[in-house]
Amino acid sequence: MSAGSLAIVGLGPGPHELMTFEADAAIRSASDLVGYGPYLDRLPALPEQKRHASDNRVEIDRARQALDLALGGARVAVVSGGDPGVFAMAAAVFEAVERGDPRWRDLDIEIHPGVSAMLAVAARLGAPLGHDFAVISLSDNLKPWDAIARRLTAAAQADFVMALYNPASKARPHLIHDVFKLLRGLKAPETIVAFARAVNRPDERIELTTLGAADPSVADMSTLVLIGSSATRRVTRGNGGFWVYSPRSYGDMR
Amino acid sequence: MSAGSLAIVGLGPGPHELMTFEADAAIRSASDLVGYGPYLDRLPALPEQKRHASDNRVEIDRARQALDLALGGARVAVVSGGDPGVFAMAAAVFEAVERGDPRWRDLDIEIHPGVSAMLAVAARLGAPLGHDFAVISLSDNLKPWDAIARRLTAAAQADFVMALYNPASKARPHLIHDVFKLLRGLKAPETIVAFARAVNRPDERIELTTLGAADPSVADMSTLVLIGSSATRRVTRGNGGFWVYSPRSYGDMR
Q1: Which of A5, A240, B108, B214 is the most exposed place for a label (fewest CB within 10 A)?
Q2: What is the per-residue pLDDT across A77-105, written as a single tens digit (0 to 9) for each?
């Protein structure tokens, strides 16, 4: 049997138009698609293409399944929403490779990047990531609070804009409240905060607020939370709405 | 004259295949393209489409030009390499809007995100951004060293992976050396470092090394520098090469 291949593909934030041409081609040329069910459901059904849908909580098992299919000769595409390299399938695949079947190391593995959620959210708001920023995932049940708090504190003290992925967890419903409590002790109440849910999808909802006024309980599993730096600011639009941006210069840095 | 519009468009890292369908459509439907000359040169010439090429060092002037063209009724696309929201044209446009002609606030401004350089570099290497990371630009001549050092120190002490944009500056040739000197005092010599130049372009060159062994002078204006966390690791490929990834869990965090 000829050697298979594994493509790790970023679908972007949702609609097909925000996928790259390369990602689209990688998916079309695959014999087997592996991924979380709702991501596979975004893709058009192609004849003779097999689908292997799985639950979102078993990334490492999904990675192993994809690697085994490729080893068996399949042209496999494993898909992620957003970019596969940011808190997504690419790291899971390499964790599996490092610990698993030595033959997986011989496979042809390619990664096709995508527009990550933070970039899609930033594009909706204006340019909040126009200056230095830190990207932190709150999702993993294995993460000790001390480690999360240490990174949030460092990011706040050095005045980074922050993009917080996966802010809600069924296992830890109080986590996002603890995060806001910590940040309120470190940053000014007028700091700009945005809760951006399902950006670019039909159920998109963006709430622009401040650190002092924010209600963290609006953050669910589909929400990305943006926390401004001291320089992040709003510009009033002619229609009464706002753009949010972070100036490119350090001049305004606290 | 009918109202014009302004699209701020991310071209991705280089080849057309890494652009999104939406970005491609926004460029094709524009009457006027504004951007740094080499970015405009990547795009196919369309009849009746005007091009306004400019020098890279005048982003704010380019933003004002694009806004004025839109105010005059043009369908303007201003282009950035990578994603326009990450150290690029989107922030320049909103800086111009905030300080400029009040009528600019009434314009229809849309941002079309793209695959940023850090995501393209990560896809080439494996999954180095698979865990929390900080994104820092070293380019701006206005940046005081103290501010840069403060952010690098915070990112190192909280063990973020780091993506450093614009590491080389003609005005400050010693900056990248100062950055490495600082990081060597804060992080282990075996920390993984990658210099990724012109990724996805014909002159791509990636050097994978360690903090202790790195020669920072290889970084030029087209290079993105990745600095691993303490958990970032290499996996040997069957062909003798390496993948680089950062595990998803905090388990290995220092």
Answers
A1: A240
A2: 999 999 999 999 999 999 999 999 999 99
